Amino acid sequence: MRHAFIFSLSLCFALPAAAERLPPDECRQVAARLNADLPQQLSSHSILESVACVQGKSKPRLVYRNKVLADIRKPPPRVIERMKAEQRDAWCKDPAQRSLLAMLDVSYAYYDKSNRYLGALTHRIGDCGQ
Length: 130
What we know:
By secondary structure, this protein is α+β, with helices and mostly antiparallel strands. 29% of the residues lie in helices and 28% in strands.
């Protein structure tokens, strides 16, 4: 899934630059803005259906809910690792995205065509390294 589709870059201007974590109400506002443009087909294999803000253990988490259109039970580990690396690079290498990741965690949850949960990839600022 080459298109990691990260919406938040255009929203960073509205977020507090020095915040340690995003307040829950602001996280929900970000999710609501993102949902205004959904659902959106990301590739021939997936659709981004919705974004939600949930409270994590230490800070809010944006959850991107994706529907996988391909008939798949469980993707091979190499595919999962490639997807995770692409998503992590998109969040960690762009300064604006990285700033947002410092304030919240991000998960990409995947479901099949019948809404059966396939798994999730979660990214935290600690995953970015130095």
